[in-house]
Amino acid sequence: MRPSDRTPEQLRAVTLETGVNRYAEGSCLVTFGHTKVLCLASVEDKVPGWMRNTGQGWVTAEYGMLPRATHTRGRREAAAGKQSGRTQEIQRLIGRSLRAVVDLKALGERQVVIDCDVIQADGGTRTASITGAWVAMATALGHLVSEGVLKTNPILDQVAAVSCGVFENEPVLDLDYEEDSNAEADSNYVLTGSGTIVEIQATGEKRGFSRAEFDRLFQLAEIGCAELFVKQKAALEAALKA
Amino acid sequence: MRPSDRTPEQLRAVTLETGVNRYAEGSCLVTFGHTKVLCLASVEDKVPGWMRNTGQGWVTAEYGMLPRATHTRGRREAAAGKQSGRTQEIQRLIGRSLRAVVDLKALGERQVVIDCDVIQADGGTRTASITGAWVAMATALGHLVSEGVLKTNPILDQVAAVSCGVFENEPVLDLDYEEDSNAEADSNYVLTGSGTIVEIQATGEKRGFSRAEFDRLFQLAEIGCAELFVKQKAALEAALKA
Amino acid sequence: MRPSDRTPEQLRAVTLETGVNRYAEGSCLVTFGHTKVLCLASVEDKVPGWMRNTGQGWVTAEYGMLPRATHTRGRREAAAGKQSGRTQEIQRLIGRSLRAVVDLKALGERQVVIDCDVIQADGGTRTASITGAWVAMATALGHLVSEGVLKTNPILDQVAAVSCGVFENEPVLDLDYEEDSNAEADSNYVLTGSGTIVEIQATGEKRGFSRAEFDRLFQLAEIGCAELFVKQKAALEAALKA
Amino acid sequence: MRPSDRTPEQLRAVTLETGVNRYAEGSCLVTFGHTKVLCLASVEDKVPGWMRNTGQGWVTAEYGMLPRATHTRGRREAAAGKQSGRTQEIQRLIGRSLRAVVDLKALGERQVVIDCDVIQADGGTRTASITGAWVAMATALGHLVSEGVLKTNPILDQVAAVSCGVFENEPVLDLDYEEDSNAEADSNYVLTGSGTIVEIQATGEKRGFSRAEFDRLFQLAEIGCAELFVKQKAALEAALKA
Amino acid sequence: MRPSDRTPEQLRAVTLETGVNRYAEGSCLVTFGHTKVLCLASVEDKVPGWMRNTGQGWVTAEYGMLPRATHTRGRREAAAGKQSGRTQEIQRLIGRSLRAVVDLKALGERQVVIDCDVIQADGGTRTASITGAWVAMATALGHLVSEGVLKTNPILDQVAAVSCGVFENEPVLDLDYEEDSNAEADSNYVLTGSGTIVEIQATGEKRGFSRAEFDRLFQLAEIGCAELFVKQKAALEAALKA
Amino acid sequence: MRPSDRTPEQLRAVTLETGVNRYAEGSCLVTFGHTKVLCLASVEDKVPGWMRNTGQGWVTAEYGMLPRATHTRGRREAAAGKQSGRTQEIQRLIGRSLRAVVDLKALGERQVVIDCDVIQADGGTRTASITGAWVAMATALGHLVSEGVLKTNPILDQVAAVSCGVFENEPVLDLDYEEDSNAEADSNYVLTGSGTIVEIQATGEKRGFSRAEFDRLFQLAEIGCAELFVKQKAALEAALKA
């Protein structure tokens, strides 16, 4: 049995609350159980220097964790004077995942900056970030469409992410911290609403894992993302009505 | 009339919610109108190097603002590679204010680290931080007392803070961002429950201000802090019961 | 009695020597007893990027302390790779204080950069810096007027600063290091020649302080600044004649 | 047809030259076509601070690219003052991959530091690094065994890595730069000699990719790694004889 | 006798291999015995900001050492976040030495960036770098002439460098690491093909040295550079034919 | 004729004023014409980590230039976040020069830190720094001897430095800024009182220079240093009597 009493195919309670910041063009507070990430989308009218005069836009993401989001307090990255390798790895993944479902030409010379700040961490912060960030971004761009700023919506598809792992030799969906820190293998899947794969990251932690295990992990990811797509749609609809 | 329709002596709606983080030893989400700061107190069993073997403890604070806490997105300090002068000034003030009401000997060789992270900003983030940080710290230390780790409570007094300013030539209490960015003078007061002054910072923004104006600003601060002390007591009581 | 045998209302010996650097547009070596700060004003024909094409000028300040300005050698900030929070706090204060008495429009698109470098420290370096910086800046701008570069003098008023504190429970003027490091309360006052307040910073060090104590500290600051304004005028006059 | 005239299942010419540095405990210059990486293993008698007194050892890796390893000169990271997110991501991957096949207890309180420096880049530098790094590490540890410093060889298995991608809609093995920069999907596989998976990283570049494509990419990786394992064995044998 | 069995006037085996990088406009792998430095010349079509619109070009150099180029592994400068004082000193010297023999006007608004990366170090890395860098630079500029991009060759002369030192009280040519780390005096000479001096750096290590010793060291440097000029010419000729 | 009307063999007016800082163990304000450097020696009871328990001491130096020490204001290194290559090169030279005349064993496990801060610059700041630093250091160590802390004086000899250059094709002694910035060759000589050479740095600026020119420059340096040794002795004597 899992420490959280879930079945292997069961997600934690997932919520996607929109309208949580009065300034950002799109916002979503995503929770996966005790994991809580604030995702804010800012639309800026200029693009990075290397992209100017290309007629295209850009989507980028930054990720951070509050120092006491975790069991023991971590060092504040701003005080340390740099972002850790882990932070950079995660924010690059979030940006890549979102760009995979955006038509950068339709966006025009605009930049969407997504800030994913982890308020509380209990495993799966990067996949929760991607899932919530899509809602924040789609809200912001949806508003630009309804305001007539954009003629066509640059959002091509949904994108969501979930982690899966081998815990006590059984593949399970959506690891919490207790499972994650003891898993034999850990993996993250970023999938689109139309069923294609955007990113797979799978790592053997204590031992290598087998192809059969991988296939089951992938199957669990598909189950999890199917649920997340439904929740994203509902959240976006609510946000655009508000 | 003030942009927010308040009287000169009126605070914004202030809330102090405790128990908002499952890991921190003490926590308080403080709001002053649209300003929202998450204050978390972490108790660590070691003190900074320069303090070892003195038998005393230490209280320190770090302050940060989420990039999109403000109207337009600011640069993430972790990405910029350093904390701004403003950030450092504020976190030094928070630390000083809290240490003024703590008996560092009674604390023993422990460090309390307070993280004040601004989730949303609408003026007065440093004074809200101090007010909320005291609740988080007092909660954490109150628990150490009830657990028997500390024999006497190191908390000597309450401390709260509020800003006042001269807006359209009238002294008013608790400036929001609209007032703050147009004020003739801006000031912050850190006062204790027993009526002493811990810190005054008063600055002429567009012009110097007069002694008479200062006296009125100080009077408003006393009115505001009196309300805050009542709210702090209620919040702490609720937190320690929980 | 004070360690320096002064009365509570007595400044240390204060000198303001001008013409101490052959390149700077204005210069002043200010001493308050053993505290010695070299204040140099540089006039540059361009303003910071965010200010271009506004028709206005800017005044900014940088502060530094030579490593062995103090009893025990401190770390060189250039070697440490960053300015301390204290340094940034002080240089922001100096810049704000000077801008309070300058008409930035009359200055035109020029920047005055003030460098305050502490050659020797014995308490009160930030207030000495402000006092000397005004002389350096006024010298530089006075020359621009007499050279016909500026039509009207952008200097609107004098500004000077002094520290006061509660030492052995008695409010005293112009703390030296020995008093400063043992004071119950420490405060800095930045006042203009016409009697308005530019900045007050008052901090309880060992204990909170009372309103009555604050009122006496403020009175002492007025006494001290009155003397400083006379000395500034004489120094400026001498500098402009030279 | 591929730009390099290879079949989809064909690796570039791969060489693993050992004994290429006179100081390092193990060394391997690995080439995959025009990609050339110098992998050096240094054995140190102390472990990172957080690992002291655990009786275990550690394996870590650093990665760098000479500024003109690429078509146009890149900025030197030492001059820029920091390692890019990409660099950190890669060196974390190399370290993780090597640790997956080392018994850290058998290593004792020693650290193996692997330096992978890219002398010339033509795609696949991270997978070449892992493949060569294993040879360098196994050489160093093999020597420690034959010198009697270690009783048992901490190397548990071989580990090698290869990239595969979808280029012009066909899955191909071992992308060179021309393919890599135009691929629809790009992926890296780190596999062990005994057939388990250590790491999979698969990314859709221009579009998401399908599960069928992924399965073929994985199959190609197994074909490629089988060849690499043979070459690693031969190179290690030669190195230990020398 | 010298540890390497050389006579006092004898260089180590010196090789200058060109064509060692497929992207750089000029390249040379220089070896002095076990010292091995990769020198790559990159030609860029823009100059540093302070030089724009002057009609002149610029030559600059960067220097680095692979972490395990030495007996014990050194810290990677990119990971440390800055270049050491020694590195900066050396790269400034290389740049100055090369500029001494280049007509910057004839170069036009172009920049030649020389990267000298030490693959293996056994003393004399800075002098080997200068010697090899000249070959790389001259190759790159020779190609620009033969391609008709430049009308006249900006190379005015050859430049080469060698170290000499006082080892066991005898002046010797071209110190290796064993000699260098025990020398009484160490010196570097940068000379031109036409016999002028570009740079002398001579340092007493364990003791001051005499004028007579200096004169002998200088004589040895002239002997060494004469050999190096012959080898440079041959290497350049080969490179331009290729 | 030289711009300053000096003969080729003539130093600028040189003064060495001691007792200029009330905290430093040794101090010397050195001027060479308009060049003014404050040299302070601090004696610390601990040595750098890599030197602990060797029974030896260490001498090190730091160099800085006030931002407006020069004609146009330079950037403050502490604000820039790093020391320039030039600064590091100079402070390494000063440290090396002083260590050449100190018996580090006789010093015991103590460190002398020399701070050379340029108050005003008109050429020759590094050589003035060395010349003044010796006085500051010798004062500090002389006091330790007279206080009985040290049994033997670790100072083995005097060390002084001067620059020489080829200006308008004539070798001249002690370049000021006007000469320095137009010189054909520039060189610095660090010599000991007993006539040995500690360091020579000679650089062709606009052209290579000849051996004959070098010989004359060296001769001028000997003339200059002879004068400096006399002045150093007098300054030290005065300082130790005070």
TrEMBL record, chains A, B, C, D, E, F:
HAMAP family membership: RNase_PH
Claim: Ribonucleoprotein is one of the keywords in the record: no
Enzyme superclass (EC): transferase
InterPro entries: ExoRNase_PH_dom1, ExoRNase_PH_dom2, ExoRNase_PH_dom2_sf, PNPase/RNase_PH_dom_sf, Ribosomal_Su5_D2-typ_SF, RNase_PH, RNase_PH_bac-type, RNase_PH_CS
Function of the molecule: Phosphorolytic 3'-5' exoribonuclease that plays an important role in tRNA 3'-end maturation. Removes nucleotide residues following the 3'-CCA terminus of tRNAs; can also add nucleotides to the ends of RNA molecules by using nucleoside diphosphates as substrates, but this may not be physiologically important. Probably plays a role in initiation of 16S rRNA degradation (leading to ribosome degradation) during starvation.
Originating organism: Brevundimonas goettingensis
Any Pfam family: RNase_PH_C
Keyword list, A-Z: Nucleotidyltransferase, RNA-binding, rRNA processing, Transferase, tRNA processing, tRNA-binding
Gene that produces this protein: rph
Subunit structure: Homohexameric ring arranged as a trimer of dimers.
GO molecular function: 3'-5'-RNA exonuclease activity; tRNA binding; tRNA nucleotidyltransferase activity
Residues noted as binding phosphate in the record, renumbered to the chain: 86, 124-126
Family: Belongs to the RNase PH family.
Domain Exoribonuclease phosphorolytic: 10-140, 157-222
Gene Ontology biological process terms, A to Z: rRNA 3'-end processing; rRNA catabolic process; tRNA processing
Enzyme Commission numbers on file: 2.7.7.56
Catalytic activity reported: tRNA(n+1) + phosphate = tRNA(n) + a ribonucleoside 5'-diphosphate
Lineage top rank: taxon: Bacteria
Name of the protein this chain belongs to: Ribonuclease PH
